[in-house]
């Protein structure tokens, strides 16, 4: 079965182009776009970990090592597509247009962090594992019924494939042949549980067979492969050819969250041999004449500034509004809830 | 280690434990003393659980008895049913109560009624453990307090210890019970206090509350993390000359009706405190119990200080969701000055 799903690569660990069919399609603009976005989200990610350590953010789920998978897939989307991320996919949502300030706010215990900019269909991160897969199928179904060319993408981890919602989401999508891409980041672990204890199948891509949809296994640390394979899946979706399951094989370099201690379950040397996705892109850029030291320095400064500004904005954000505890639960607040709100606000007044 | 007087003639060896240590110790004993015991859940083996409740247990008892399962709550509970009807005694861990919902069907339609549907031919003596509750700045959805989804379910018992001693004793009692028991563990109390806990096996009877403070003017009824809130409120009320009796319910189904009735008949006033949502909260059942048993003793309508009818907010606002000592004191003053 594993042989049926060879890992697709466009560039190898040394940054050499191994799929020559892409020689003409790869251009400077794309390469720089991919690299810049990886740099940007990595800067954001590392900053978040630091802020958490300083007590300036709550528990945080880092994604270092998964930048290529998140950026490559997110850049393959069109403006009106739908994105259904998990708590680890803020690299993808930032790339697709979510505000950085709001992303910080999310990790700082602010519901404002769930709200995407106007015109961007980014769902709040799915915290209960795998629940977002049927949502993505449903949103795609609506686009199909309406006859648009829009599609949706569901991000999920290897652990999510064990939940019933994984099956239900894929099955609905294929039964109704809806334009959705199920984008799995197989980062090796679901908290402490390695893939081989999570499932008895050697790949996640092969699960597509059961649903009669294409399954693609890609090197998730090869940003170009992720980008082009996701694009292909979206092309199929937009052409009415239904869903695709993509397995992007990657690696979670850090902890599951800042509250997790991987030394409990993962040998320190595991994964050390995996070439970092940004490093790999750097090698590629150097090999093929895309590397521009001055541009890199400019981009580093730009991303640093953007991150610092977003932190400042997050920290100076208006204090949370107590009324928000009550106000967004119903369109029209039922009387009994209105009474609870009124009596609580009166209580705060008295104090 | 110290010796604690259990009863007049028995001396029991005890040691200082937090609630999480007491739970760990309870499970260790259950694994050691009954080879049918099997623990299953997400990240409970090698990792020792996300709260370290099962720390060291897989190392000691092996991966066949302390099992890291795939990430699937329905699978965990569904297979626990199969294990239980076929001779094992599962302790299933659900990582957070907020993630139990995929297993709701298994619990509602099978765990709770296999005995009835098979006229006791099949039974599922098993324990489901689930950390729950707000107030620890957890990410969203980790903070639910939805105990009444389970107290409303005939066929399963629900317990909710608030301290190390009760946690171990109730866990062991739950395992000895012939019926399924859901053990709700208040995350806020996992490491909040240490106390002397017996080293060996002991049980805290399911269905029995505990009077944690005696008083004469008003009865406060609470459980889990709300016990600490009730105690703080009672301290403040005492400064105002009001004497509070506090009942730690400990078991949410079946409720200790006698203890509630006896206390309320003595104090003639009651304030119920729970962090679950107001509507459909267990407070309503307690009001009915008082109504049924003690109506004519009451000198004031019963007060309920609860979470609101809203999803538990993100952590910057969770303090506004949870009952506070100040809100409880207002409730106390309201019933006392009625
Ligand atoms: C229904 C449900 N059960 C349990 C959890 C607790 N939990 C959070 S993340 C996680 C592991 C998820 O692993 P995976 O799907 O591989 O994604 P990754 O975190 O590796 O990105 C678990 C068990 C949850 N959030 N939801």
Which sheet architecture does the biggest sheet of chain B show?
7 strands, mixed
Low-pLDDT regions of chain B: none
Number of helical regions of chain A = 12
CATH topology of the largest domain in chain A: Rossmann fold
CATH class category name of the largest domain in chain B: Alpha Beta
Subunit structure (chain A): Heterodimer of an alpha and a beta chain.
InterPro entries (chain A): Alpha-ketoacid_DH_E1_comp, DH_E1, PdhA/BkdA, THDP-binding
EC number (chain A): 1.2.4.1
Domain Dehydrogenase E1 component (chain A): 38-322
In short:
The complex is a heterodimer of chains A (351) and B (338). Chain A is of the alpha/beta class.
Write the SSE topology.
The complex is a heterodimer of chains A (351) and B (338).
Chain A: H1 28-53, H2 67-74, E1 82-84, H3 90-96, H4 100-107, E2 121-122, H5 132-146, E3 152-157, H6 164-175, E4 180-186, E5 189-190, E6 193-194, H7 195-198, E7 215-219, H8 223-238, E8 244-249, H9 277-287, H10 293-315, H11 324-327, H12 335-350
Parallel strand pairs in A: 1-2, 1-3, 3-4, 4-8, 7-8
Antiparallel strand pairs in A: 5-6
Helix pairs in contact in A: 1-2, 1-3, 1-9, 1-10, 2-3, 2-8, 4-10, 5-6
Chain B: E1 2-5, E2 11-17, H1 19-33, E3 37-41, H2 57-61, E4 66-68, H3 73-85, E5 89-93, H4 104-111, H5 114-117, E6 127-132, H6 148-151, E7 157-159, H7 164-176, E8 181-186, E9 195-198, E10 210-213, E11 218-222, H8 226-239, E12 244-248, E13 251-253, H9 257-267, E14 270-277, H10 282-294, E15 303-307, H11 318-321, H12 325-336
Parallel strand pairs in B: 3-4, 3-5, 5-6, 6-8, 7-8, 11-12, 11-14, 14-15
Antiparallel strand pairs in B: 1-2, 2-9, 7-13, 10-12
Helix pairs in contact in B: 1-7, 3-4, 8-12, 9-10
The complex binds thiamine diphosphate.
Thiamine diphosphate sits between chains A (88, 127-129, 157-160, 187, 189-191, 252, 256) and B (42, 71, 73, 95, 99, 102).
Keywords (chain A): Oxidoreductase, Pyruvate, Thiamine pyrophosphate
GO molecular function (chain A): pyruvate dehydrogenase (acetyl-transferring) activity
Subunit structure (chain A): Heterodimer of an alpha and a beta chain.
């Amino acid at each position: 079965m594993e042989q049926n799903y060879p890992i697709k690569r466009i560039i190898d660990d040394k940054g050499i182009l191994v799929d020559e069919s892409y020689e003409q399609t790869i251009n400077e603009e794309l390469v720089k776009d991919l690299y810049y976005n990886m740099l940007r989200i990595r800067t954001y990610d590392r900053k978040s970990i630091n802020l958490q350590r300083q007590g300036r953010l709550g528990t945080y789920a880092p994604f270092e090592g998964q930048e290529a998978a998140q950026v490559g897939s997110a850049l393959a989307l069109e403006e009106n597509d739908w994105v259904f991320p998990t708590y680890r996919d803020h690299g993808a949502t930032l790339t697709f247009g979510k505000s950085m300030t709001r992303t910080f706010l999310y990790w700082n215990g602010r519901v404002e962090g769930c709200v995407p900019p106007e015109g961007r269909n980014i769902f709040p991160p799915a915290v209960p594992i795998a629940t977002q897969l049927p949502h993505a199928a449903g949103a795609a179904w609506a686009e199909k019924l309406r006859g648009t060319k829009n599609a949706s993408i569901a991000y999920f981890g290897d652990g999510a494939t064990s939940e019933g919602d994984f099956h239900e989401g894929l099955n609905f999508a294929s039964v109704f042949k809806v334009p959705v891409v199920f984008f799995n980041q197989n980062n090796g672990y679901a908290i402490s549980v390695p893939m081989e204890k999570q499932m008895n199948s050697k790949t996640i891509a092969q699960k597509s067979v059961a649903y009669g949809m294409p399954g693609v296994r890609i090197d998730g640390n090869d940003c170009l492969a992720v980008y082009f394979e996701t694009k292909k899946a979206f092309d199929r979706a937009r052409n009415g050819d239904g869903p695709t399951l993509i397995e992007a094989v990657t690696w979670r370099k850090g902890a599951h969250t800042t509250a997790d201690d991987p030394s409990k379950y993962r040998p320190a040397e595991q994964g050390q041999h995996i070439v970092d996705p940004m490093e790999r892109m750097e090698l590629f850029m150097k090999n093929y004449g895309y590397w521009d030291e001055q541009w890199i320095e400019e981009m580093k400064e730009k991303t640093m500034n953007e991150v610092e500004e977003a932190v400042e904005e997050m920290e100076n954000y208006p204090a949370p509004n107590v009324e928000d505890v009550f106000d967004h639960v119903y369109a029209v607040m039922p009387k009994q809830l209105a009474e609870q709100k009124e009596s609580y606000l009166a209580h705060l007044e008295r104090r | 280690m110290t010796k604690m007087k259990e009863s007049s003639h028995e001396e029991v060896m005890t040691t200082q434990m937090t609630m999480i240590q007491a739970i760990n110790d309870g499970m260790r004993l259950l694994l050691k003393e009954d080879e049918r015991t099997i623990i299953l859940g997400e990240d409970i083996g090698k990792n020792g659980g996300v709260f370290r409740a099962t720390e060291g247990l897989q190392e000691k008892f092996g991966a066949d008895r302390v099992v890291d399962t795939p990430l699937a709550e329905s699978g965990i509970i569904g297979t626990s049913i199969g294990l239980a009807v076929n001779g094992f005694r599962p302790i299933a861990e659900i990582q957070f109560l907020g993630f139990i919902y995929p297993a709701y069907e298994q619990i509602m339609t099978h765990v709770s009624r296999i005995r009835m549907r098979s006229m006791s031919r099949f039974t599922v003596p098993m324990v489901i453990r689930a950390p729950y509750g707000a107030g620890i700045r957890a990410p969203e959805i980790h903070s639910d307090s939805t105990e009444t989804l389970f107290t409303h379910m005939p066929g399963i018992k629900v317990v909710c210890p608030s301290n190390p001693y009760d946690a171990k004793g109730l866990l062991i009692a739950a395992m000895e019970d012939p019926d399924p028991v859901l053990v709700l563990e208040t995350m806020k109390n996992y490491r909040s206090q240490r106390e002397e806990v017996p080293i060996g096996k002991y049980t805290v009877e399911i269905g029995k509350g505990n009077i944690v403070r005696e008083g004469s003017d008003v009865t406060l009824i609470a459980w889990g993390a709300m016990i600490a809130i009730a105690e703080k409120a009672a301290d403040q009320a005492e400064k105002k000359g009001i004497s509070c009796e506090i009942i730690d319910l400990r078991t949410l189904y079946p409720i200790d009706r006698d203890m509630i009735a006896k206390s309320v008949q003595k104090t003639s006033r009651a304030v119920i405190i729970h962090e679950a949502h107001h509507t459909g909260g267990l407070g309503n059942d307690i009001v009915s119990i008082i109504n049924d048993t003690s109506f004519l003793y009451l000198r004031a309508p019963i007060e309920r200080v609860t979470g609101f009818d809203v999803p538990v907010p993100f952590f910057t606002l969770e303090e506004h969701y949870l009952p506070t000592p100040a809100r409880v004191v207002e409730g106390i003053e309201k019933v006392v000055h009625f």
